[in-house]
Amino acid sequence: MDDLVFAIDTDVRRRASISYLLNRRGIFAEPFETVQEFVVSFPKSGIILVHDDGKAAPLLMQEMSSRHRWMPIVAYSENPEPSRIVQTVVDGAIGYAAWPGCDATLIKTLETAATRSVAEISRGSRQALATAQIEKLSPREREILAGMVEGLSNRLIGEQLAISPRTVELHRANLLAKIEAKHSADAIRLAIEASLPSFQPAPGPIARKILRAA
Questions:
Q1: What's the whole-model pTM score?
Q2: In this structure, CATH architecture of domain 5-125
Q3: Deepest of 35, 41, 45, 204, by most Cβ within 10 A of its Cβ?
């Protein structure tokens, strides 16, 4: 594999050991002690190999999301419980290896991640770009876009938000311009790629009175 590997591990001996293993196998490994140290330089490409302490993988995903960047993450720990592996993958890891353990298995996991990373990076890059575009919108424009995703008309969106269909139409035109969408379909695609929350308008004044009385 030609990808660079960035090994993040707070334990100096384990970090040195895994870096030596990878470099000896012809895989260039650059070690980092913490996620915070890694994100200071944040390379453009490569695979992140991180020791799973229950916090590192989620923190990495948060940092990548805030920077609208994505890199494949492979986590590792010694004798991990199946539930821990599942949770780490849910948190964003693309692979998991038991290490210290079988060196060949770790290398194979990295090779598999490298193969998958092309498609995943493409998907992750699209999501990051879409998220950056959606963040340009005001809260009201995001509500209206969420309504568009659900196929609601201007009238129905307006009824839910207690505004006129004409106001909805103006917001739609503004949001399309902000995110540089040629038509509504482009905007809807970006919303889906950015995982925009579903349409859940806050209750209007009348509804709030009913809720308080209940």
A1: 0.56
A2: 3-Layer(aba) Sandwich (3.40)
A3: 35
Question: Residue 139, Cβ neighbours under 10 Å: how many?
Answer: 8
And the tokens for 86?
């599942």
Tens-place pLDDT, residues 50-76: 998 888 888 888 888 777 677 888 999
Confirm if 100 and 78 have CB atoms less than 8 A apart: yes
Q: pLDDT per residue over 142-151, tens digit each?
A: 999 999 999 8
In the chain, what are the domain boundaries?
A: 5-125, 136-213
CA 190, 129, 158 angle in degrees (round to 5)?
30
Q: How far apart are CA 92 and CA 73, in angstroms?
A: 7
Residue whose structure tokens are 């509504």: 184
**Which residue matches tokens 């384990």?**
14
**What secondary structure letter does DSSP report for 38?**
H
Q: Report which secondary-structure segment, H or E, holds 101.
A: none
